[in-house]
Amino acid sequence: MKTPKLDLSVSEKSSLKKAGIRMNQLVDYAPDEICAILNAPEPRAKQIAALIEFQAIPSVGPKFAQDLIDMGYYTLSQLKDKSGAELLNDHERLIGAWTDPCVEDQFRLIVHYANHPGNGKQWWHFTAERKTFRAQHGYPNTRPAKAWMQLEQYR
Prior knowledge:
Elements: H1 10-18, H2 31-38, H3 42-55, H4 62-70, H5 84-95, H6 101-115, H7 127-137
């Protein structure tokens, strides 16, 4: 398993070191245990556990993992009955901009992985599926007109 990228505070890193636990070992702990190990509030421990779980999926990095959390998802099981296309639509509404098409491929990957753990697929395995779907259904009329690269954080 790859070591997740976690933006731990100085205090959290210190607590981790005092417990004699390496970052890549946090994958073995539940959110309540992470809470105790890091001396972190429950919402923060829940966020860290989600970042770990999501980044365990091939080709999912810390930014996309955080996007899922920002959308209100903290476990793969919450994504089992979702649609990659609808997740993209929700994400674009949330950020107020349209995103690169490969982001939809990642949403499709995460839903697939939630239903078929350990299959080893990557986001690009869903490109053809996305293209077929969008050719048939297009994007919603409510899709933001602004591109993601026009958002302040990308300037």
